[in-house]
Write a structure and sequence with these properties.
10 strands; three-stranded mixed β-sheet; 29% helix; 9 helices
């Protein structure tokens, strides 16, 4: 059974700095038995990144839909895992106001990091929280889960103006803000190629070869730790050569 001390050692071995910005995609089950359970996992990351920013996705695209358009950040559960739901409810954590692709953040300038997402017109725009990962030279940890869950690449596709990724129309979602409910029109992910994120994992060998990602461990979980800037720059270069890079399983050249 892993203790918090064990997990802190694993984080240190990853090469993370206490002042880093770190976003985590996670599978609690992959970590194995932890003394104190999921709270210990969150305590370990929060303690290690005492001078940085810890970010977890708290997406609601599965439940906040055109048929059920209201998003209350205080009560709407995340659809992307146990750790994300526990984290969003912790003291000091602030959650962004994006109706479908919110994140929760704790640490340095957390409020500034999540600010303004209620004005985003698409799931992962350059000026939103996903684009800000690039600005902050963030690290992205795939903790026991595959790189196909790399939401950041949705954002890179948006910056690169990849066609056939968003609905033509914006849907009138409603977001509860401190000042009351507001209407937030947002386009949704849609593609004739289906869920293009299922092809994101094909970038992993190239990321590793170029030094943009490396394998590491956390408890029992095999993880990939990626550099947001390097992953974005490599993906952008690949998209310049093939704008529909993620329309099929064909891997990019290494």
């Amino acid at each position: 059974m892993y203790t918090k001390k064990d997990l802190l050692c694993d984080i240190e071995k990853m090469g993370l700095r206490p002042d880093d910005t770190l976003l985590i995609h996670s599978s609690m089950k992959a970590i194995g038995q932890v003394e104190g359970g999921a709270d210990t996992v969150l305590n370990a990351f929060s303690e290690y990144l005492a001078d940085g920013l810890l970010v977890l996705p708290t997406h609601t695209w599965a439940t906040v839909t055109p048929q059920h358009p209201d998003y209350d950040p205080e009560t709407e559960p995340s659809c992307v895992g146990l750790l994300t739901n526990l984290f969003r409810q912790r003291p000091g954590v602030v959650r962004s106001l994006h109706p479908t692709h919110s994140v929760a953040a704790l640490g340095r300038d957390a409020a500034g990091y999540v600010a303004g997402e209620e004005h985003c017109a698409s799931p992962c725009p350059r000026e939103g929280c996903w684009g800000r990962l690039y600005n902050r030279r963030a690290k992205i940890l795939f903790l026991g889960c595959a790189m196909r869950y790399n939401t950041f690449l949705h954002s890179v596709e948006e910056w690169s103006d990849v066609p056939l990724r968003l609905t033509a129309e914006a849907f009138p979602f409603r977001v509860k803000t401190p000042a009351g409910w507001i209407e937030t029109p947002v386009r949704r992910h849609e593609s004739p190629f289906g869920d293009v994120s299922r092809f994101y994992g094909k970038m992993q060998p190239l990321f590793v070869a170029k030094g943009a990602a490396k394998e590491t461990r956390f408890g029992d979980a095999v993880c990939m730790l990626g550099d947001a800037v390097a992953m974005a720059d490599i993906t952008t270069a690949c998209l310049r050569r093939n704008i529909q890079l993620f329309s099929d399983e064909t891997p990019p050249a290494i």
